[in-house]
Amino acid sequence: MGRLVALTLLGASLAFIGARLLDLRERINTFREVEPVEPQNCHLIEGIENGSEDIDILPSGLAFISSGLKYPGLPNFAPDEPGKIFLMDLNEQNPRAQVLKISGGFDKELFNPHGISIFIDKDHTVYLYVVNHPHMKSTVEIFKFEEQERSLIHLKTIKHELLVSVNDIVVLGPEQFYATRDHYFTNFFLIFLEIILDLHWSYVLFYSPKEVKVVAEGFASANGITVSSDQKYVYLADVAAKSIHIMEKHDNWDLTQLKVIQLGTFADNLTVDPATGDILAGCHPNAMKLFFYNPEDPPGSEVLRIQHVLSEKPRVSTLYANNGSVLQGSTVASVYQGKILMGTVFHKALYCEL
């Protein structure tokens, strides 16, 4: 009798796992390909070879690019090289990427940069906040940008028990930011189980020196986060659910969900077009190709523009799509005066004039 029960439980478990794997195959767009949508005036940025995971652009046209992310389950073409922050001046006729020097006693050998966010103080001082993963942990590093010297001065490392598996941040005040936790577990096997079971245990937290709290939860994988131009709304990419959440920001920093925009692709990082207020999303059209990398059949790239985000019918259009022959694994797109920068998780970066 005991053996029969054990076999019954085993069979039920295998059937359940098999059903979840079949469901996962559909959820990760295993067979999806993209039709090319490519602007005429594009070129890859020389010097960026190992990722450009996140991009943030100052109103002056200076673009910060995080590069060299080492993330569990994803390829890395330079595993022994520390991460870098690049700078590009988009006002130049042929902008080039320059590695920013980092000072202030920061351990550059353990630099593993992920999401970034710019904050401009009342005295016009520019600070760059960077999600960092030293030893695969999560911290937030605060740097002061020295424009004349083209360098970053490390000021502070922020740690907290809720800052776990941090993916992206958006800074709204001095040491005040929202951060996303993309997975509940930190063990790779448990993360895989979390994905298979489609657990919605991911969240957004608010951090300040006086208060740290979860302000929105129930996401499959909270990823890129940004804020509207008027700072009234927060936009969040739930990458695993292929959706973007529009949330209202309250005076106590809590977030209330207003709507969800469903996509057919995996939105990673989000930015806002300062001229129009539109959301730009760097996306992964096929997650299977991303996590099971094959250089002969690489993951493609996709950039979407979402217009009229607060209306009943937001308009979603494709700005860029490529099957991986040019750009692999796009994560972000950011615009400045008719120019667009597109970044990737582990590959190159692309510059286009729209």
TrEMBL record:
<dbReference type="Pfam" id="PF01731">
    <property type="entry name" value="Arylesterase"/>
</dbReference>
<keyword id="KW-0732">Signal</keyword>
<feature type="glycosylation site" description="N-linked (GlcNAc...) asparagine">
    <location>
        <position position="269"/>
    </location>
</feature>
<keyword id="KW-0479">Metal-binding</keyword>
<feature type="binding site">
    <location>
        <position position="223"/>
    </location>
    <ligand>
        <name>Ca(2+) 1</name>
    </ligand>
</feature>
<feature type="glycosylation site" description="N-linked (GlcNAc...) asparagine">
    <location>
        <position position="323"/>
    </location>
</feature>
<keyword id="KW-0106">Calcium</keyword>
<feature type="binding site">
    <location>
        <position position="54"/>
    </location>
    <ligand>
        <name>Ca(2+) 2</name>
    </ligand>
</feature>
<feature type="disulfide bond" description="In form B">
    <location>
        <begin position="42"/>
        <end position="352"/>
    </location>
</feature>
<dbReference type="GO" id="GO:0046872">
    <property type="term" value="F:metal ion binding"/>
</dbReference>
<feature type="binding site">
    <location>
        <position position="268"/>
    </location>
    <ligand>
        <name>Ca(2+) 1</name>
    </ligand>
</feature>
<feature type="signal peptide">
    <location>
        <begin position="1"/>
        <end position="19"/>
    </location>
</feature>
<dbReference type="InterPro" id="IPR002640">
    <property type="entry name" value="Arylesterase"/>
</dbReference>
<dbReference type="InterPro" id="IPR011042">
    <property type="entry name" value="6-blade_b-propeller_TolB-like"/>
</dbReference>
<keyword id="KW-0378">Hydrolase</keyword>
<protein>
    <recommendedName>
        <fullName>Paraoxonase</fullName>
        <ecNumber>3.1.1.2</ecNumber>
    </recommendedName>
</protein>
<comment type="similarity">
    <text>Belongs to the paraoxonase family.</text>
</comment>
<keyword id="KW-1015">Disulfide bond</keyword>
<feature type="binding site">
    <location>
        <position position="53"/>
    </location>
    <ligand>
        <name>Ca(2+) 1</name>
    </ligand>
</feature>
<dbReference type="InterPro" id="IPR051288">
    <property type="entry name" value="Serum_paraoxonase/arylesterase"/>
</dbReference>
<feature type="binding site">
    <location>
        <position position="269"/>
    </location>
    <ligand>
        <name>Ca(2+) 1</name>
    </ligand>
</feature>
<feature type="binding site">
    <location>
        <position position="168"/>
    </location>
    <ligand>
        <name>Ca(2+) 1</name>
    </ligand>
</feature>
<keyword id="KW-0325">Glycoprotein</keyword>
<dbReference type="InterPro" id="IPR008364">
    <property type="entry name" value="Paraoxonase2"/>
</dbReference>
<feature type="active site" description="Proton acceptor">
    <location>
        <position position="114"/>
    </location>
</feature>
<dbReference type="GO" id="GO:0004064">
    <property type="term" value="F:arylesterase activity"/>
</dbReference>
<dbReference type="GO" id="GO:1901335">
    <property type="term" value="P:lactone catabolic process"/>
</dbReference>
<feature type="binding site">
    <location>
        <position position="167"/>
    </location>
    <ligand>
        <name>Ca(2+) 1</name>
    </ligand>
</feature>
<feature type="binding site">
    <location>
        <position position="116"/>
    </location>
    <ligand>
        <name>Ca(2+) 1</name>
    </ligand>
</feature>
<dbReference type="GO" id="GO:0102007">
    <property type="term" value="F:acyl-L-homoserine-lactone lactonohydrolase activity"/>
</dbReference>
